[in-house]
């Protein structure tokens, strides 16, 4: 059994390195691997060259409802649904695959990713806890992240109902073309 444990640890290290490269915070590494905090700190410092930020994750479901984060989160969740439901991937694998695809799309559009890996991970946990749901937009038919118990009958997404300040940064959200691509994965 000793060999098995070494292989498990090697797999955890590989995952931890990938998560740190993608920007994961310590809280995510501690939940998703069985490595000690000391080992995770070492990995973090080796990969990033600095110590991880301290403190709690400030995330609440409300962050995902603000305009730009909602569009990015909805794009990510579209990929996640595909990997979790159609491709049958579970847990961290589905999250990391979806996050890579999200980054590919954001980079193709020459935008800054609004959603960090840790936020994407938190988003999936909120879905697992039934705090959030996907709501269809009554205008464009796309599916968007919404609070679990909000009525969705007349829901209109942030792209169909853009706030006026959104016009200031025209590269703030994925284009309609990207979203269609995302939906058809
Ligand atoms: Zn819409």
Automatic annotation (TrEMBL):
The cellular component terms of Gene Ontology attached to this UniProt record, alphabetical and capped at eight, are: cytoplasm
**Gene Ontology MF terms in the entry:** DNA binding; zinc ion binding
Provide one Gene Ontology biological process annotation: positive regulation of DNA-templated transcription
Predominant localisation class: cytoplasm
Which SUPFAM superfamilies does the record match to this protein? FlhC-like
Could you tell me the superkingdom of the organism this chain comes from?
Answer: Bacteria
Where is this protein found? Cytoplasm
Alphabetized UniProt keyword annotations: Activator, Bacterial flagellum biogenesis, Cell projection, Cilium, Cytoplasm, DNA-binding, Flagellum, Metal-binding, Transcription, Transcription regulation, Zinc
Q: How is the cofactor bound?
A: Binds 1 zinc ion per subunit.
Q: What are the required cofactors? A: Zn(2+)
- For binding Zn(2+), which residues are annotated in this chain's numbering? 137, 140, 157, 160
InterPro entries in the record, alphabetically? FlhC (IPR007944)
Database matches in NCBIfam families: PRK12722.1
Known function: Functions in complex with FlhD as a master transcriptional regulator that regulates transcription of several flagellar and non-flagellar operons by binding to their promoter region. Activates expression of class 2 flagellar genes, including fliA, which is a flagellum-specific sigma factor that turns on the class 3 genes. Also regulates genes whose products function in a variety of physiological pathways.
Q: Which family does it belong to?
A: Belongs to the FlhC family.
Provide the assembly information. Heterohexamer composed of two FlhC and four FlhD subunits. Each FlhC binds a FlhD dimer, forming a heterotrimer, and a hexamer assembles by dimerization of two heterotrimers.
- What name does UniProt use for this protein? Flagellar transcriptional regulator FlhC
Encoding gene per record: flhC
């Amino acid at each position: 059994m000793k060999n098995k444990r070494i292989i498990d640890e090697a797999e955890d290290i590989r995952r931890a390195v990938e998560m740190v490269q993608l920007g994961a915070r310590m809280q995510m590494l501690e939940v998703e691997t069985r490595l000690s905090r000391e080992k995770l700190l070492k990995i973090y410092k080796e990969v990033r060259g600095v110590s991880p930020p301290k403190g709690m994750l400030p995330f609440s479901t409300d962050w995902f409802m603000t305009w730009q984060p909602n569009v990015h989160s909805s794009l990510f969740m579209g990929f996640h649904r595909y990997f979790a439901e159609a491709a049958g991937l579970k847990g961290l694998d589905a999250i990391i695959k979806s996050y890579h695809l999200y980054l590919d799309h954001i980079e193709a559009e020459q935008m800054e990713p609004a959603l960090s890996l840790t936020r994407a991970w938190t988003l999936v946990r909120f879905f697992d806890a039934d705090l959030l749901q996907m709501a269809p937009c009554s205008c464009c038919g796309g599916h968007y992240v919404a609070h679990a118990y909000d009525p969705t009958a007349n829901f209109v997404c942030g792209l169909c109902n853009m706030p006026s300040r959104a016009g200031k940064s025209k590269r703030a959200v994925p284009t309609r073309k990207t979203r269609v691509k995302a939906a058809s994965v």
